[in-house]
Amino acid sequence: MVSKLENKLNFYDEFKDFYFQIIRDFKFDYQKDCKARDYLSGILAKKNHNWIIENIIKSFRNQIGSKPAISIYGCGPSLKETVDTILRLKGRNFFEKFINLAANGASVFLRERNITIDAIFSDLDGITKNEFNYSNFNIIHAHGDNIEKLISFEKDILEFENVIGTTQVEPIENVVSPGGFTDGDRILYFIHKLLNPSQTIFLIGMDFKNIVGKYSKLDIKSDQEGSLIKKKKLRYAVELLEWIKTKIINEMFFVNSEVVSDKFKYISIKDLLEMVNS
Predict the structure, then answer these.
(1) Are 216 and 105 in contact (CB under 8 A)?
(2) What is the spatial distance between Cα 162 and Cα 149, in angstroms, rounded to a whole number?
(3) With contact defined as beta carbons under 8 Å apart, do 35 and 147 qualify?
(4) What phi and psi, each to the nearest 5 degrees, are found at residue 217?
(5) What pTM, to 2 d.p., does this model score?
(6) Of 203, 214, 179, residue with least CA distance to 263
(7) Per-residue confidence of the chain (278 residues) as pLDDT tens digits?
(8) How far apart are CA 15 and CA 8, in angstroms?
(9) How far apart are the first and last CA of the chain?
(10) Do residues 177 and 166 make contact, with C-beta atoms less than 8 angstroms apart?
């Protein structure tokens, strides 16, 4: 039986038209997505009996609601400059004012800077087991191309208490389907029904131009121009963020990023520091 909170996170019915458009456009394999979902579900089913998804989601909801500001970190090229500038001007304690949610490899950079990570949203292709065990929560996404990663991280998933599994196909009992496509936009899809209306959301390193940040994948050594497929994924991410924004009443700002859509508000690092200190 799907729990009440688990059902609240499931957004598949609303999102499925987008999902099928995406798999047609990229020629993804629906059956492989289902296979990955089922494999992750099987891992979660083997966890300690103390792991109850309703309780984990409730704990996650309480965590993200515990501060007035949420920062979502992407792997874009502005990530390093933005975070390092804040560290230089305000120090590490400034980041304690936020709930810090990292998209995949952005967590590698945050861990390098000793910044607390409240949750990592990842399909496991941009993190190591060091990041997995550094975060307070891990929201693990299963799709047709990452089954080998699920196998590699199985022991860590079994041993780490605060794990939530996600899929992009139909949800099943212990795996939710929150909508979204890339790790970055999926964060907003996952949290949009868990937010307090008064919370402010800041997007850092969430760049959707053609340059891919070095933290996007473990084998990337420097920022580089994205492949044609990556550029198409970034365009989809912008479209999906525009859509989910219509369902979020919270104030949301891109920090130190180039403008990619007139649907969003953009602020400088200085603006962020003034807003959070006020």
Answers:
(1) yes
(2) 18
(3) yes
(4) -140, 155
(5) 0.96
(6) 203
(7) 566 888 999 999 999 999 999 999 999 999 999 999 999 999 999 998 889 999 999 999 999 999 999 999 999 999 999 999 999 999 999 999 999 999 999 999 999 999 999 999 999 999 999 999 999 999 999 999 999 999 999 999 999 999 999 999 999 989 999 999 999 999 999 999 999 999 999 999 999 888 787 888 888 888 888 888 889 999 999 999 999 999 999 999 999 999 999 999 999 999 999 999 75
(8) 14
(9) 45
(10) yes
Partners of 202 in beta bridges: 71, 253
* Number of residues assigned to the chain: 278
Residue listed under structure tokens 């200085």: 270
What are the structure tokens assigned to 53, written together?
A: 């998804």
Domain boundaries defined on the chain: 4-277
Nearest to 149 by CA among 19, 40, 14: 40
